[in-house]
Amino acid sequence: MNIKTLLSASVATATLVATAPSAWAIDGAKGLYLGVGTGFSSLKNDESEVGDFIESGSESFDLDNDDNVFKGFVGYEFTPYFATEIFYADLGRTRLEGNSGANTDLESDAYGVSAVGQLPITPWFTAFAKAGLAKWETDVDGNLGNASVNLKDQDGTDPVYGVGAQFNFAPFLIRAEYERYDFDSDYQIDTFTASAGWRF
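Above: the chain's sequence. Below: its structure in token form.
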């Protein structure tokens, strides 16, 4: 291969590498998208706060509060800087391990809507922040070994907010995000998820 051919090949390769992200990305995309994701959850609160949340009247238990999270979302991007999403999240299980050997499980899920502020860093990489409202339910199964204590299921509508980053490869998207589901001061679930999606 002579110098001229080698130079031409090098220029062509460099041009392809430089322009590839723009070719893959959705430049100024607007419209509908959806995705699914998974990750893990972690409870911010300690034993006494969780006891208050379920009205156990006891702090004689240990927390096992890491579990898998599954979520789905559908969104609409109005501009490269703003979108809205509806979502559903299975937030996993928190286990209360009583000193008497009895266990109680708290299983939570939530659905709602969020506003998403977006900052396109490059044509293929976007940072975002979100805030919204989640309708949530926590089912409580067990009694911590005291049958006379009726632990209560909980539900409500409270804020959810988070931050993340998204890679745009037309028509695919990949995102990683952190969210906090702020049920109340006694029960706040942090989630860390990775999702894959599709633009229409």
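The chain has a mean pLDDT of 82.
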